[in-house]
Amino acid sequence: MRLFGVFTVGDAVPWLRWFDFGGHEKAMKETAKEMDSLVSEWLEEHRQNKALGGKVDGVQDFMDVMISMLDGQTSNGFDADTMTKSTVLVCVYVQTRLSILCCISFFINCSSYIFILHICFCSQ
């Protein structure tokens, strides 16, 4: 996740992308392959569970709904697996960022309350 938002020289000057200052491009490509294989395993696991009769309690998660909605479809040259995997990766990224924002917001709010309490009770 640390590579999301990293600025590389190739972003500003595309013809220098091959130089890869700092090795960020290589790390991004390796991370993308790892994330793709992980989500591919999730997708395959969900497909196998669906083939074996689905969920025991009948509740479907996000991946199951995506599989049932996009099964066998293509859109703009992308197959259903690619669309499902990319949507799941975006959801993971957004959830991670929202969790961080919630924590920061919590600490900012708590620090302001602590500051107010400090002023009220300790300034005498």
From TrEMBL:
SUPFAM superfamilies reported in the protein's UniProt record: Cytochrome P450 (SSF48264)
Keyword Metal-binding: yes
GO molecular function terms listed in the Swiss-Prot or TrEMBL record: heme binding; iron ion binding; monooxygenase activity; oxidoreductase activity, acting on paired donors, with incorporation or reduction of molecular oxygen
Origin: domain of life: Eukaryota
InterPro entries reported for this sequence: Cyt_P450_sf, Plant_Cytochrome_P450_Monoox
Keywords assigned: Heme, Iron, Metal-binding, Monooxygenase, Oxidoreductase
PANTHER family: CYTOCHROME P450 82A2, CYTOCHROME P450 82C3-RELATED
Protein name: Cytochrome P450
Organism of provenance: Vigna angularis var. angularis
The gene coding this protein: Vigan.11G025600
